[in-house]
Design a protein that fits this description.
With about 230 residues, the protein is an alpha+beta fold. Helix content is about 35%, strand content about 30%.
Length: about 230
Amino acid sequence: MFEETMSSNELLDEYRLDLADIQAKTLRFDGSDYVRRYLWKHHKQPTVTITKAFVSERGNSYLGILVYFQTGVGKSKKWDWSSFHIGLMDTYHGIAAIAFYTESKQAIKFNPHFFQRYQERFIKVCDWQTKSQLTMAKNIIDVIGIYMKRNLTMTWIETKSVFRDKVHIFGPVNDGVALLQWSKRHRTLQANTFVTMDMLDEKQSEMVKYAKIYISLSKAQRKKFRFPDFILND
């Protein structure tokens, strides 16, 4: 099971052991009457996102995020979909979330404080629909779902700023910036807090601009991309 003392690699390994099981559970949910009714109700929308809680046979909890998008035209129009799974882990401070990035072979642990800051800060600058969702959120899992649906990708910028054994990492996302730390000793990548765009200084805003350029590039172009020294020396 997920444990608070696990490294990022160990969390990713734990997820891999559960993957076949939770993928099968996700497929069954996709074929449920609930999903069919939900998609029919929202058939005029080009993209729909549904969240669903899962528990693996090994006892790990997950929040499944199913993204549906319409393809084709006329009678050939249909829903295609993809899914993501966010690990949920009980910690001393509350429920933490774990995002798995299999391509980069990394797992990021988002501590409970991160989602508290996301809710209280983003609610001040977001659109009215998201504000309503954040206001009506009953618990941290609701907030995790809102955040993850809106911020499925992240660009990581490793800086030269170090506190003890922890390297500071700047992580631009759709709604703002996740501030992370990489612990060399514990081999963990953890998102500690969230800031909105209006909280950034001039240099940090430049970091976001270059991150957006990077994320728009192809895989081959990304390998050749270099962030300016003024960013890396933060």
